[in-house]
Amino acid sequence: SDVYKRQVSTQSTWGQFKVSTIDVFKVDSSSCHPWVMPLEYTLKRYSLLYLKFGIDAQTRSDLRGLVHSIPSGIHAAGVVTSCIFDYMYNLKGLEPASDAYLNRRSEIHTRCAERILALSVRNRGIYLKLGQYLGNLNGIMPREYTEVLKVLQDSGPSIPFDEAKVVIEHDLGRPVDELFASIDEKAIAAATLAQVHAAYLHTGEKIAVKIQFPFLRTQTPSDLAVIRYLTTVCTRLLEWRDFKDFDLLKLFTTFRASLVDELDFTLEVQNSELTRELFKNDERIYIPRVHKEYCSPRLVVMEFVQGFKVDDREGIERYGLSSVEVAKTLIDIFGKMLFIDGHVHCDAHPGNILIRRLPQDEKRAQIVLLDHGFYRSLSDAVSYTHLTLPTIYSV
Questions:
Q1: Whole-model pTM?
Q2: 374's torsion region: left (phi>0), alpha (psi -120 to 50) or beta?
Q3: Angle, in degrees to the nearest 10, between helices 125-135 and 99-123
Q4: Selection from 160, 149, 109 nearest residue 127 by Cα
Q5: Which of 111, 179, 287, 364 has the most CB atoms in a 10 Å sphere around its CB?
Q6: Nearest by Cα to 334 from 312, 314, 319, 349
Q7: Is the pLDDT of residue 308 over 60?
Q8: Can you say whether residue 173 is alpha, beta or left, with left for phi > 0 and alpha for psi between -120 and 50 degrees?
Q9: Pairing of strands 285-286, 308-309
Q10: Which of 312, 347, 371, 380 is catalytic?
């Protein structure tokens, strides 16, 4: 209906692509397949009946997650089907090694990557995380995919604070006003699974409050089931086309394992504290202190640290810092993680690495490492400490 179209026309510009940023009751109809929108509208309209009978806020978020997962799965199936037919019919009859084939394939790669980008932002949650994951697979995914999907690395759409605070009050059992002296209702950062708000404790300390999106609790299992099914279909088609070395199911298994860890914020707190301990004697790196009494599996509260992204060359020069020193420090930090400690931060994109002046010496730079949800531990069998430097370079 026209009313529905007016209600769902919310859009935002993200990078070079115009994609929808949606909540449960706002969907960009232009991005939907014609047969998806009526079902989606019906589900969400009738779900309102269940949300008006005194149900607590977390249960309402759970219901929204369940309702949202159905049309999201249908839309995902439509996008995957479109991509499959795009490859099958537009490459038909072309010689695989010819210039015409390679050029056409590059065009299809780009089109399909743009569809996945739009799907990731539209469906949010796990789909957004999957789009980010695919965009980071340099050397595995085609270049067109990583180029298009790299816009997902730094940030994502946020949700209204009235929806986000459900997690705080449900998990900690107290109203926000009692827990914090004040909190900025506008998110200062948003990622694929959570958003961050600046706040003040009653002691006057400024803190950062990382809140997992409340709908993920029920939406994640169904979304993962859909993605696994679609991945299985794509893997079978690749095998049929004699691409047996490209195992999408293996990529999905790795993605799911890392996702499960990232959704448990207690692991993030543990990783943060361990990394802080391992680097306690290195003033060049700083790990923000965590207030564990305010933390839960979906909530992390830590000290607020100001800085600028590690890839901000102008910022480094503006503050009179040395980019060479910053690069050397990064190499030392991750070299220690890989070759000595075996405790490795695996989500080290620029959004998670800040630069600030070293408090003890403002002419030097200090690395602030954020978001400790995705780590990998290297066992003794994988340790590289026994390798000589020439051996490492030869690899």
A1: 0.77
A2: beta
A3: 150
A4: 149
A5: 287
A6: 349
A7: yes
A8: left
A9: unpaired
A10: 347
